[in-house]
Amino acid sequence: MQKAEELFQGKPWATTSVQLSGGSRISLVDGGQGHPVLLLHGFPERWFSWQHQMDALLSAGYRVIVPDLPGYGSSVHGTGDHSVPALAELFGELLEKLGVESCHLVGHDWGGIIGFELAARFPWRVDRLALLNGPPLPAIEALIRDEPSQALRLWYGLLFQAPLAAEMLASDPGRRLLSWVLERTLVRPADDLIRLWVDSIDTGKARAAVAYYRAAFKLLLSPLQANERQKMRLSRVRCQSLVIWGEDDWALDAKLIRYIEKLHTGWLTFRPIRGAGHFVQQDAPEEVNRHLLEFFAQKTRQPEKVASWR
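RE: above sequence
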């Protein structure tokens, strides 16, 4: 079985790991010498889902820091707390350990959910925030509250609440089903990428992936999480931000943009991409790269001015 390191051999980056508190260890790829850009992936990806963006950012003179999320690849979450606040704290600590005072942050799917919370909790760490089909958790909660039918689009998250869901996901039938779903979700399927994603899933990694969804449901529904839930609902991101959205996303409705806007008090720009789905960075890499590079090169806007998506 070919490994990611073999597939991307000769690229201008190095793989390393950083030990964090609580027994956590984050495996990441680090390359370049310019202003740092932290790229956070989602489910069921790994760091190499950013391959097209890494090449473009490095060519433009940026430093890329691309971790595997805790539980993915070789990354280990020592505490086992996969709640969004805990993950945001963990990546805040990662930046500190790397000596990164501030960075641009790009997040897709779970990476966007975590990235938004990180920017809200540690505003001095994030210069600019780009969300790629990855809305903050309170935006998803608000949309489902207003339109309960939207919960059906997240059927897999509901499925992951079932006992033995991780074991099923890691089984041969589960991996075949995941491959089938990915092949039909990616507008421009990349066979090597799909195989690497699926091959990297064993029972332990599946349990970690499922834990993200279970922690999110607990945070949104448990009476014991009421204070943390309210804190997330009231938190706001103030840094200049960009939302890139693949319009053919069957899991996350573009209506979420309205709710993202309510959680943001700074300059927010929306860039929809027709013909791209949930994995927008894979489906339309050239367009995504162009939007990111233009966004990072823009002059700083006044924080009170908001560029609406409408």
